[in-house]
Amino acid sequence: MIEPHAPAPPGTAPPWPGPVRLPVRPGVGRFLVLAGVFVCAACGLVYELELVALASYLIGDSVTQASVVLSVMVFAMGVGSLLAKRLRRHAAAGFGAIEAALALVGGCSAMALYAVFAWTGDWGGLWANGPRCLLVAFSLAIGLLIGAEVPLLMELIQRIRRQDAGGAVADLFAADYVGGLVGGLAFPFLLLPMLGQLTGALITGTVNAIVGGALVLGLFRRDLSRRARWLLVIANLAVLGVLAAAAVLVDDFERAARQAVYGDDVRVALQTDVQEVVLTGGTRGRPLDLFLDGRLRVSGRDERRYHEALVHPAMNGPHTRVLILGGGDGLAAREVLRHPDVRRVDVVELDAGVVRLARTDPALAALNGHAYADPRVHVATADAFGWLRQARPAAYDVVIADLPDPGITASTKLYSQEFYGLAHRALAPGGRLVVHAGPVSSRPRVFWTVDTTMRAAGLRTVPYRVGGRDEGFAAGPDRVTGASLAPRDWGFVLAAADTTPSLGLDPHAPPPRTLTGASLAADARTVAPTRITGMPPSTLVHPEYAN
């Protein structure tokens, strides 16, 4: 226990308690403290990245979620540093308590957020909604605790060996920043792919609790009263017990949460290098659904309406060489292959896991007509933007952009003027480009921004839509809660370089099952009155798909 000192006169700093009694030499003690700073900093950054990743996955719009989480955390760190000033005279006990709390809050944050998402599903609407407030609350709590670490660690370093403040700050921040680098690299390259978000957060919390507890109870135990030592031992054991129990139950928790999100008919659930992929249905007469990162991308109830409307109008003309950007599920390729004079189909898909599933899963392979078994189909695992930059000019008669909705931040560059310029270059004379541009009824500004951007790239466009979609299929970047906001259609833009393309169907190919030339023309006429003029094109540095 630190011996009491007489209070300092008003306006003066409190007296230095003097060097702490260590079980090791001061040089070794300083090294151990800096090693603890290194580990705790790595854990703190993992918590931040885990919140950003989980929020982006569950809510969408990664730029907004990253901005909210990081700005709230930085603010809270400043507040935590100020509050920690009151604990400086009891730095060892305070630091031990803070690390135990941080390990518990940070380690359990992913499970808590995912549980609220799975069993409430209420991520739309205003920021006042409970799950979003929970995200902000975790960001605030973790930021407060991380911010409180630095003043206490500074005090502990100075208690070991008094030195000038500049040197102590340099040592402390060097260990902190290097630890942040390791944590920042470990999260995407080690924790996330090998352990997943939930288990990765629990392991990080466990490491945080062990290192923080060992540092205080091992190195600074003589600076604590007997009661303080026992309280810290009990607190750390309780935290480790909670994290261990959660780690044991995490698989059952994930299954239960996944069923709450996707229903009881989950057949396949895997985490690829790019995203989470879930398949439901496809057996015993139940329609197959494909979810990517929690969003329904293929609905067996109405995917044919979408893919026929996407592919067949673009195939009304020369189409011996076809490029499909995205479409790893093979469904767009299925429609392309219905045209017998197609000679080559190149599918450029970022996620090899989706292609592998489309080849091997019996239900999905049956739905896509075993398109990948056709020797005319060639697959490249690549980013569509980067792949187009390397493509030969005039290489394709038809380019089909079967991509996620443009409002999703990760897809914004694939709806930019630069991207359409690259696609324009890849088109042969008389070639056509078709783009899925999101729902017209619920996101008209996004839809017409796509049209404006394609025109800015030198393309001549014909916008059209088809209705009757399943409200969940290929939803936009945020889940919608009101029935009036649910998408009721798919919007597309057909474009050509030389002349305005005619909107119709290839008379020499088998007719689509759900689409006719008359219905296509009628749906196109309903789009024209919704046009929004005067909108700027979207570019890489000025994306315009936020609304």
TrEMBL record:
GO terms for cellular component: plasma membrane. Pathway: Amine and polyamine biosynthesis; spermidine biosynthesis; spermidine from putrescine: step 1/1. Residues 247-497 form the PABS domain. The keyword Metal-binding does not apply. One of its GO terms (molecular function) is thermospermine synthase activity. It is found in: Cell membrane. InterPro entries: MFS_trans_sf, PABS, PABS_CS, SAM-dependent_MTases_sf, Spermi_synthase. Its main location: membrane. Pfam families: Spermine_synth. Spermidine binds at residues 307, 329. Keywords: Cell membrane, Membrane, Polyamine biosynthesis, Spermidine biosynthesis, Transferase, Transmembrane, Transmembrane helix. S-methyl-5'-thioadenosine binds at residues 275, 349, 383-384. One of its GO terms (biological process) is spermidine biosynthetic process. It catalyses: S-adenosyl 3-(methylsulfanyl)propylamine + putrescine = S-methyl-5'-thioadenosine + spermidine + H(+). Its EC number is 2.5.1.16. Belongs to the spermidine/spermine synthase family. HAMAP family: Spermidine_synth. This is Polyamine aminopropyltransferase. It comes from Streptomyces aquilus.
